[in-house]
Structure formats: C-alpha cells, structure tokens
Design goal:
Blueprint: H1 2-14, E1 25-30, E2 33-37, E3 42-47, E4 54-55, E5 60-64, H2 67-85, H3 90-116, H4 122-173, E6 175-177, E7 182-187, E8 194-195, E9 200-205, E10 209-216, H5 218-221, E11 229-235, E12 241-257, E13 271-280, E14 290-295, H6 296-300
Antiparallel strand pairs: 1-10, 1-14, 2-9, 3-5, 3-8, 4-7, 5-6, 7-9, 10-13, 11-12, 11-14, 12-13
Helix pairs in contact: 2-4, 3-4
Length: about 300
C-alpha cells in the first residue's frame, strides 16, 4: 500500500501529460560547459566567433599579439648563427700538424735503416724520434683544445635552441583554438581587448550528447542502476514532446530537497535523489529544456 502511495505521488510530481504516458521522474537537460581562457598575455588581435557558432576541435579562431615573442626568437636564431660560425673544422686545423707527424714518422723509419747500415749514428735516430713524439703530443693537445672549444660552442647552441623551443611554445599559446567539438555558448572577450593569462575568452559545450538531471524518490531509486536504459520525453512546449533513449551514468548517494525548478506539487520537503541520464542529441535538444523519464526496467514490471 505504501509503495503504491509513493508511486502515485511520483506520478503527480513528474506529470503524465505526454500522451497519457506515466513517467517516473522529471528534470532539466544540462551540458558539460567548458570555459576557454587565455594562455598568453597581450592584445587580442582577432577572435572570430559568435555565440551559437559550431566549432571543430583544433579550429583556429583567434590570435593574441606575439610580435615580441617573434622578435625574441629572431634574436636567438641570430645568436645561433653567430655561435655556429665560431665552430672550427678540427680535421682542417689538424692537417698541417698531421703533415709534420707523418714527416717525422717517415724520418724515424729512414734513420732506423741508416743506423742499421752504419750510415747514421744512434743520436741522429734519437733526435728524429724525439721530434716525432713531440709532433704527436702537439697533435693530441691541439685536438683536445679544439674539441673542447667546439663542445662549449655546441652546448651554447643547444641552450639557445631550448630557449627557442620555449618561445615556440609561448607563440603556440597565443593561438586561440577550440579544444573540442562543440557550440559557443558565451563570448567574454573581443578583438583589440587586452588579455591577461587565465582571462576567460569564451564558453562552449559539446552538445552531441546532453545530460538530463532527473530526481527520483527513494522508492524509485532502489529499482534503477547505472547503465540502465530509459525513455526520455523532451518537452518542446504546447503539449509537444519527442521521445529519446538515454542511459543512466550516475546516481547520487545523497538525498536532497526537491529543487524548486522541478515541477512538483507544493511539497518542497520531499527528499529525492539526483540521477544523470545521457541522451544523444539529434540537434533539437537544448540546454535548459525539461524532460520526463520512464525507466525501462520499472516499465517492464
């Protein structure tokens, strides 16, 4: 008897104007709104959107002035070119020393033959060998100096390239793009205004699906669960409704007083539970529209 009384009350709360279909809950369609804020600071040179525009993900829709960033990048590119000009060709620098090394190497071989044939003395061989060893040390020292010098310059160039990468990232942030597919709901800024980092530029929402936030009594709550399907009757006014199929994606664990925006009898103290039902939008559903719900599993009973 109690269950019948609660169900009867719910019928009155939700209404039964949809061609005499008994509904279990009612609510309002919502969207997941996203506020897009400025990622950079400067004058907005363009923001080519208006409320109601349909955007695709990554659409370029505006620009914040980045002239100073471009100039900083150019300055760093010039610094890289200057640093690269200081790099030395180690092989070319060592060429004269290598000739000297090869000359003394050949002399050592020649004097060894001469000493063996008593055509030269041991001291002459020792002198040539010493000269050869000195040339080798000179080559090693020169190679080490040139290599270290080039390494320092390359490190400097890499540091400049990192700075350019940072500037490129900042330049990219001056481009105003759409982060997702959706509709522009509200425009907060216009061209020629000054944008601070974090300043809201516009608000948008993905309206390919809408969420009906409906409210059910505890008695109904025990008969529904996440992923259950439901029939949704969207209210288009003048007794005009349209049927949709939805799926429950969230059920509140806490009771609350019936929201004033939900049509009910004058019984504001009734405790209800919020339920979110996702509905695929065919283009006619709008945020703020009312909808009524028939839970399929309860209907089957």
């Amino acid at each position: 008897m109690r269950k019948l009384l609660i169900l009867s009350t719910l019928i009155i709360l939700a209404g039964c104007s949809n061609n005499n279909i008994i509904t279990h809950a009612s609510g309002v369609f919502e969207t997941e709104d996203v506020i897009i804020s400025s990622k950079s600071m400067g004058e907005i040179t363009s923001l080519d959107i208006k409320e109601g525009d349909i955007l695709k993900k990554d659409n370029l829709i505006g620009q914040i002035d980045n002239m100073q960033l471009q100039l900083q990048k150019k300055n760093l590119e010039n610094a890289i070119a200057s640093a690269e000009s200081r790099l030395v060709n180690i092989e070319l620098q060592l060429a004269p020393i290598d000739e000297e090394v090869n000359k003394y190497k050949n002399e050592v071989v020649r004097f060894k033959r001469l000493v063996a044939s008593d055509a030269a003395n041991k001291k002459q061989l020792d002198d040539v060998t010493s000269a050869y060893n000195a040339a080798l040390k000179k080559r090693d020292a020169t190679y080490d100096t040139l290599t270290k010098g080039n390494t320092l310059i390359l490190n400097e160039i890499n540091g400049l390239k990192i700075q350019i990468a940072q500037i490129d990232d900042n330049i990219k942030k001056t481009l105003i793009t759409s982060p997702m597919d959706g509709v522009v709901l509200t425009k907060y800024a216009n061209a020629f205004e000054f944008a601070q980092m974090g300043k809201p530029l516009f608000k948008m929402a993905d309206v390919s699906t809408l969420t009906l936030r409906a409210y059910v009594t505890g008695d109904i709550l025990t008969q529904v669960k996440i992923n259950d399907e439901a029939k949704i009757y969207a209210d288009f006014g003048k007794n005009s409704t349209k049927e949709y199929t939805g799926k429950i994606t969230w059920v509140s664990e806490k009771a609350e007083f019936t929201p004033k925006t939900i049509p009910t009898r004058d019984e504001r103290s009734n405790l209800v539970y919020a339920v979110k039902i996702v509905v695929k939008n065919d283009g006619y559903l709008r945020k703020g529209m009312y909808g009524e719900v028939v839970f399929n599993n309860i209907l089957a009973e």
